[in-house]
């Protein structure tokens, strides 16, 4: 695998029209990533990304995502990302973890949380808003079905690619570096179009609404607001469900499906993120950060912090 230094990674990102910045200062010569990435433009506004990588550092990097639909999943490994204020943890397709399927009305922030030694094999597809408008022009039925999604911003939609797509993705990952350029281009193009069709069919069919129901979706959306604001910090899951007018089992199922995490794990991550921000911005002591995160012992806090962010609290300070 090719090893990228911090400077080389930033140069590669700029070449693709993006930008990568680490929240902890990195020397230009620091090795940060081992792996490869291939970018295939199928059409004006349809771009397929294939990558296999291993983190060599911990921390958090920042980038920008363009407006449109972005769909992604892991063939193998783990990833921890955030789009805007929405945090997603992705795991390989063989595990029961979510995919990423979001629509952005406007450019938004993208964060990637790094952990030294963590590996991922990732597939992602971007469909620009301009491309979507061109395809839907004159298709009143299709436009109506997709209008709800295209009005949303950064809400992760329920989607899971079928077994044939997962198998093809795995095959592309294995053959990508070795294939003949023409063969690789044709394989990637056909896969990208099939993936785009699957994504648009999922969005047009409103599968997520039928599975969860309108009331449960509203409960989950309200709960998500509570969690982000801290309003739910003192509530048990049973109390959350009671106040929202549903039951704990359905609430946890709906939250897992729409946000890719259990309620408890999501709360823990939010608290750790608040502690990280306090360390970075307010320079609070580690024991104070532990209290912010809800930990009674700094050793437990430090272990959880390092698992999530790849660095210890003392290193971050």
Automatic annotation (TrEMBL):
Gene3D superfamilies: Homeodomain-like (1.10.10.60). Signal peptide: none annotated. GO terms for molecular function: DNA-binding transcription factor activity; sequence-specific DNA binding. The keyword Hydrolase does not apply. Residues 221-317 form the HTH araC/xylS-type domain. Keywords: DNA-binding, Transcription, Transcription regulation. It comes from the Bacteria. InterPro entries: Homeodomain-like_sf, HTH_AraC, HTH_AraC-typ_CS, PchR_regulatory_protein. Pfam families: HTH_18 (PF12833). This is HTH araC/xylS-type domain-containing protein. It comes from Stenotrophomonas humi. The lineage of its organism: Bacteria, Pseudomonadati, Pseudomonadota, Gammaproteobacteria, Lysobacterales.
